[in-house]
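Progress narrative, Year 2. Work on Antibiotic biosynthesis monooxygenase from Microbacterium alkaliflavum advanced from sequence curation to structure prediction during this period.
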Amino acid sequence: MAEGEATHHPITVAIERRIDPTRTVEATSWMQAGTDLATGFAGFLGSGWVRAGESSDLWYMLYRFRDMATLDAWEQSPQRDWWLESGRAFAKEVRVERRTGIEGWFDAPFATHVETRRMEAAPQTGPIQQPIPSAPPRWKQAVTIWLGFFPTNLLASYLLGFVPGFSEWPIYARVLLSTVLLTPIMTYFVLPWVTRALRPWLQKG
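Result:
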């Protein structure tokens, strides 16, 4: 994906930090303060943080902005600078990833990896650019979803025909039952399989 095109997609930033284990109480308040600060910026879509484990010093923070411009406004803000400075005594940034991609099943396998930085491994080299294939065109996504949905829906309609009295149910009840059954099947089985099978075609061009 070209750099200009990537700037118009939502950007998710994942940050890995090492926290002084003797100052977890302060770190907990500090992480929450960073989340609260980001909430007040235009384009903010959400954030959160977790610890790797009760005895681990690795803490992970995620935040997401509407596009690169709104993300830059947050990351270059004096509020964020103040917040980072206030935690410098007990928080050490280890790794940063930025990812942009479209929603749905294509986000993980076809997201564009914008930037990765490893502070401990190569602090002198700065950001490490690691491109990953860009999101496929929307028409290819539509074809992929249809290829999974049509045979699945056809098979489900055939099998539901054996349910006694099913054809006499009100249409809303039939649609409700079929969608309740098919949504998890499509999400967890059919679409992951179809996208893997079509990956060379989806990534082509």
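Residues 3-118 form a domain with the Alpha-Beta Plaits fold (CATH 3.30.70.100). The chain has two domains: 3-118, 138-203.
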